[in-house]
Amino acid sequence: MDKKRNLSITKEGVAKTIFALAALFAIVSVISIIGYLLYAGLPAMREIGIFKFLFGKVWSPGYEGAASEKFGILPMIVGSTIATGGALLIGGSLGITIAIFLVYFCPKGLKMPLTQLISLLAGIPSVVYGYFGLKQIVPLLAKISPNGNGTGILAVSLVLGIMILPTVTSLAKDGLSSVPSKYFEGSLALGMTKEQTVFKVMVPGASSGIMTALGLGIGRAVGETMAVIMVAGNSVQFPKGLFEGFMTLTGNIVMDMSYASGIHRSALVATGFVLLIFILILNGILYYVKSAGKTWEKDERRKLRQLKKAERRAQKTPCKVVMFFDRLNDKFIASNEKVKSKLKACRDRVAAKFGKVFNKDGGNRTYIAKNGLYKTLKYICCGSVIIMLAVVAYLLIFIFVKGIVAFRKIGVINFLFGKAGSGKISLAPAFVSTGALILIALAIALPIGICAAIYLVEYAGKSNKFVKIIRLFTDTLSGIPSIVFGLFGVIVFNDALGLGYSLMSGGLTLSIMILPTVIRSVEESLMAVPLAYREASYALGAGKVHTVFRIVLPSAMKGILTATILSIGRIVSESAALLLTAGSVRNMPKDIMSPGSSFAVMMYMFVSEGLYMNEAYATAVVLIILVTVINMLVFAFTPKKEKIK
Amino acid sequence: MKKKKEVEKFDLSQEAIKINNVNLYYGAFKALNNINMKISQGEITAFIGPSGCGKSTLLKCLNRMNDLVDGCKIEGKFEIGGQDIYAPKFSLQMLRKNVGMVFQKPNPFPMSVYDNIAYAPRLYGIRDKTSLDEIVEKSLTGAAMWEELKDCLNKSALALSGGQQQRLCIARALSVEPQILLMDEPTSALDPISTAKIEELCSQLKQNVTIVMVTHNMQQAARISDKTGFFLLGELIEFDDTEKIFSAPSKEQTERYITGRFG
After folding, report:
1. Would strands B17-26 and B72-80 be described as parallel, antiparallel, or unpaired?
2. How many angstroms away from the CA of B244 is the closest CA of chain A?
3. Where are the domains of chain B?
4. Which CATH number does B44-63+97-258 carry?
5. What is the dihedral sign for C-alpha A172, A175, A178, A182?
6. Which residues of chain A does B87 touch, with a Cβ-Cβ cutoff of 8 Å?
7. What are phi and psi of B96, to 5 degrees?
8. Do residue B93 and residue A5 have CB atoms under 8 angstroms apart?
């Protein structure tokens, strides 16, 4: 008996250690990414000088060691910043207004298809967006451009804007839906119209969620690579106008990395490091906003501060505010006596100050006039949705029409499954390579991610500091741009481990990229398993490990499946990181140590060589179909409750 | 194997459960205050009292389910068959195997009826099909539902009705032949007919198993229990034969509660 017990105790201990180590993996990944990039970028920063590197205006790599070599990334920093700003202006405003429409004004039947459409948009690979930009947006812009040049800031902003739209929309939507519905009801009960309630109570209430959405939108825009290089014009100079070619930080890395060596290479890694630091700072800010937002929900004092703000605003429309305060008194914030009394004091002050005005016009005029404004806002939201639908329709129709024509020209069977080789183009190698990449990445990320999620949910307490740190690092990892992962892969897997351009190296890089997705979705599904199952198992004398593997994991199977499918989606649409790690050959890979191109990389090569436009269209069709199928699968496996949300 | 199992059982012949000077805290809140109690083998004991009086808490202490609660601190001594179950070296597995538990809400695993019952025997190392079949039949018979379920053992347990689910949970608890069965308001989520079935079942089980039951339903306590303990605000006010508690309680608070004047 004793022996058996000891055995089971050590088994529990070993399992717990394994789970904890898996949970540590996210932290280790982030730290080693920072470390290795710094290590490989340091020689350049030392030789050039950090100041000269960051603020140098000329980037001109020459023969190695030549005196004419100059590495200043200021033009790229400026380019990235402006392009991101433009993208945020377009994608951010559209995204937020669409989110508002979806949560509050959307007819029931439209909600599901729209949500699905947005997640489809999120899944479309960036090469497809880039190609769409190159073939449609750039020519259109060229027509209105004063210098006849369509590429440049405006084109990049438009493409990036469309690309960050789904990110912003879905996160803003989450933020809006997490505002307690009692506020909505409370406000309606006070006699405010639905429009007023939405724009005065709910949207400000979701401000932290909306900030997060915009922040992640910035992250996505800054880190985007492949779409940008197709429409930016790619001349290393300060962006002088909307239609002048320029270069972003990411574009510069991916364009030069394949041939750079020595200091040039190190300078590119250092560029990646700068990008990484920017993303880390952005993440830090977001983390702060998020945690501040969370306390806001609980903290009545914050509400009070908002009321004070309202009081200041009251100078303009006093009567309305007094009325508002009056009606607010019991229903809206009645939970806290202290707040209630301060609220009353607030109201009295306003009333005393503006009593006369208030008595004169009874306060009705401003009230009604303002509702017009909110109605307009509502129509703007509807307009955003229509714009988005038009863009999506344009994109899909363009790709499919061109793609079908292309397929006719080159032959479906031949192109998809024909033998690749001297002069013959076929997607067959891409099927094999993509499959191999998926298998390698999942074989590593799934076990680690599942173990980490088990640790977070089953072992660590909810308020545990360690858990908070792991979550922070997981979030950070998911925010790192793929080009940075690519650089890390090149430094560690290709060079240090000597794997060279290979599917193995690409798969390893991908496994780190999809790890946060796996951890998050498995975690969620584990949390959804009722506590009662665990209790019943413990009550029968089962240990923790037994309970986890026999009861909890089987119940969370759907979540694990979702994680797998989401990861596959991410891998299918990935290109920048793979271009750097797995190479871009067009022939059939011999084994996992040989280089290979996934669909997205293959498509990029077709475009960049400029010779295979038909093949590019056809690959785009294949990619979009793949992504759509993956999306539908995810949707089918998500529990129904979430679907309605 | 069989011999080993017998060794692992508690010796309840002297005294089944002995609770000595027990205090229990959830963080700073004192949930149980100086509880003393003795329960003998083969009896049904009912804990009654208003919500939040600590009766479920005490029940959960008996198979250490409170170990799962953060910030729960226990003082005093729990003895089952003369062994201190909170002793550092005491095997949790042995305790929970011999002291089964049925929860307030039916909580069958999301598996088939058969797998639900075979879960614990498999845990304890029984692998061969015939033994498992035997145990499943025996446990379901013990829970008076073999006739009902023998043709749908492969059906998902979640497809059963609430009452059936709860009896399945009892059968699941019986699968490891526990000596003591703890029931935490086992009928509060059920309809009257299912409740009657479970009460009847308890009376049958009494021959082999010592039952400790928490109930909100005073008639239920009066109907099926041998001993009744009345709890109020974390204290055991009165503990005596059920007949005596319901006919001539010695404490005023008990009388007021059972006549429905507070609670």
Report:
1. antiparallel
2. 33
3. 44-63+97-258
4. 3.40.50.300
5. negative
6. none
7. -75, -25
8. yes
CATH number assigned to the domain comprising residue A232: 1.10.3720.10
The answer to whether position A66 is within a domain reads no
User: Which of A532, A546, A555 is nearest residue B105 as measured by Cβ atoms?
Assistant: A532
Q: Give the domain extent around A451.
A: 414-644
A631 lies in the same domain as A561: yes
Instruction: Kindly report, residue by residue over A184-230, the tens digit of the pLDDT.
Output: 887 788 777 888 888 888 888 888 889 989 999 999 999 999 999 99
> Are the beta carbons of B123 and A538 separated by less than 8 Å?
no
Whether residues A546 and B65 touch (CB distance < 8 A) is answered with no
Contact B119 A540 (CB under 8 A): yes
pLDDT tens profile A522-552: 998 999 899 889 999 999 888 889 999 999 9
Contact across the interface for B123 and A533, Cβ inside 8 Å: no
Do the domain assignments include residue A455? yes
Q: Do A537 and B119 touch (CB under 8 A)?
A: yes
What is the pLDDT at residue A515?
95
For residues A348 and A462, state if they share a domain: no
Residues of A77-94 as b/e, b for ≥16 C-beta within 10 angstroms?
bbbbebbbebbbebbbbb
Q: Does A10 touch chain B (CB under 8 A)?
A: no
CB pairs under 8 A between A and B: 69
> Which residue in this structure is represented by tokens 């094999």?
A432
What is the distance between the alpha carbons of residues A617 and A542, in angstroms, rounded to a whole number?
Answer: 57
- Chain B residue with minimal CA distance to A532? B107
Q: Kindly tell me if the per-residue pLDDT of B197 is higher than 50.
A: yes
State pLDDT tens for residues B92-148. Answer: 888 888 999 999 889 999 999 999 999 999 888 888 899 999 999 999 988 888 988
- Return all residues near A469 (Cβ < 8 A) that are at least 6 apart: A27
Which among A536, A542, A554 has the least Cβ separation from residue B103? A536
Q: Per residue in A112-139, pLDDT tens?
A: 899 989 999 999 999 999 999 999 999 9
Judgement on whether residues A480 and A540 belong to the same structural domain of the protein: yes
pTM above 0.90, yes or no: no
B240 phi and psi angles, rounded to 5 deg? -160, -175
In terms of domains, do A344 and A393 share one? Answer: no
